[in-house]
Design a protein that fits this description.
alpha/beta, TIM Barrel, disordered C terminus, 12 helices, 35% helix, 9-stranded mixed beta sheet
Length: 399
């Protein structure tokens, strides 16, 4: 099963037009002509102080117990992300002195590195309670007035892209109250979890970014088909669809119940392939540095840079960073086609006859090299024999 998903991911990258639909259904324009794949945007969190790493962590960054204020760390993160084929970060934010300061530093670094940013507004507190609507509205106004003008912001038809996390906790009228003041100046995506949820507020939002980190592509029923169904609903309205993918999931230290194993990269490959199948306008990688839920791909003590290498292999070539008015996310013209559930009859023949040769050889070479070195790709980096990275402590109480 693991090899099957890895082969499927390789197939998605090798077939002409995979993940983008027929050539005549792609957005048109000079920028679109250079786009052969959807942008990859990694969810990025800036809640960290040195003390954060002592709570609810089973793994730690190779960069150490860093602060999200550290400009050198930010610069290194952007450099590593770009080299792995990540086109931008979707930054968790809500208005506050510390959060604003850290976002300003990230924006400055992104501008210097020609890296793109979107914003995901965190409207639920640590206990998953919704913030007052008036506060949400004021914070979106603040983002528009203080950050949206940066050339680092990823734009859709000229407007910066934002996501509202937690829209399912607000009524239609509450969502309309917030978005009506900024929709002419920002693109605001919902974060609904199903088609009905999206349709409930579709008229007052600009699409949907589904944050689904806890699904297991091997065991969650209807996983890939659900993404296709949501994409079809969003694209029927000519709006923006961000499909999720994650390398694994383990939130047991912060209340989670069932982990999703990483399977040495096969889980990430499978979820990336499923995201491509839904013909997304962009893929939302969960995550760059969510260490409490163990969805991180940032180089870490347990995994080294293995998951950045997996991403490099999946992306296939140096990333093309979207331009300020990239038509890769344009709402003008025809949408990419979304396949029907259960489509691709010819794919399975290809998988059975040809695809094994695409991946078996490099996998065998890597395993052989790892065996000669006496290590495996999941070997903990920077630890002495017998040490452990597991900690049992209080959950993070980040914003």
């Amino acid at each position: 099963m693991r090899l099957f998903w890895a082969l499927l991911a390789a197939l998605a990258l090798c077939l002409p037009g995979s993940g983008t639909g027929p050539a005549d259904a792609r957005p048109t324009g000079s920028a679109a002509d250079d786009v052969s794949r959807p942008p990859l945007l990694a969810y990025y969190y800036q809640w960290f102080s040195p003390g954060s790493w002592q709570r609810a962590k089973t793994d730690l960054p190779l960069a150490g117990a860093y602060s999200s204020d550290d400009a050198q760390v930010i610069d290194r993160q952007i450099t590593e992300a770009k080299a792995a084929g990540i086109d931008g970060f979707i930054v968790g934010w809500k208005h506050g002195t510390v959060n604003d300061r850290r976002l300003s530093k990230l924006v400055a670094a992104a501008e210097a590195r020609d890296f793109k940013l979107a914003m995901i507004y965190q409207s639920l507190d640590f206990y998953r309670r919704p913030l007052p609507v008036a506060q949400v509205a004021a914070d979106f106004d603040h983002f528009r007035d203080h950050f949206a003008g940066s050339p680092a912001m990823l734009r859709v038809d000229g407007l910066p892209l934002t996501v509202w996390s937690g829209t399912w906790r607000y009524s239609h009228d509450d969502v309309a109250r917030v978005t009506s003041a900024v929709r002419g100046e920002l693109r605001v995506l919902a974060s609904e979890k199903n088609v009905d949820g999206y349709r409930r507020i579709a008229d007052v939002t600009d699409g949907d970014a589904y944050y689904w980190s806890s699904a297991d592509p091997e065991t969650t029923p209807g996983y890939a088909d659900k993404l296709v169904d949501m994409a079809r609903a969003v694209h029927a309205d000519h709006k923006i669809w961000l499909a999720p993918c994650a390398p694994g999931f383990d939130a047991r230290l912060v209340g989670g119940a069932k982990p999703v194993p990483r399977r040495n990269g096969a889980t990430l490959a499978a979820e990336y392939a499923a995201a491509l199948r839904s013909s997304p306008d962009a893929i939302g990688l969960i995550s760059w540095n969510e260490f409490s839920e163990n969805t991180h791909v940032e180089p870490s003590r347990d995994h080294g840079d293995h998951y950045l290498q997996v991403l490099r292999d999946l992306r296939g070539a140096p990333a093309t960073v979207p331009s300020e008015n990239s038509t890769a996310l344009s709402r003008s013209g025809q949408r990419r086609s979304v396949p029907e559930s259960g489509a691709f009859p010819g794919v399975w023949a290809f998988v059975g006859l040809v695809a094994p040769m695409l991946l078996i050889t490099p996998l065998a070479v890597r395993r052989l090299r790892a065996g000669r070195a006496g290590t495996g790709p999941e070997r903990a980096v920077g630890r002495s024999p017998g040490s452990s990275s597991r900690r049992r402590s209080r959950p993070d109480r980040a914003p």
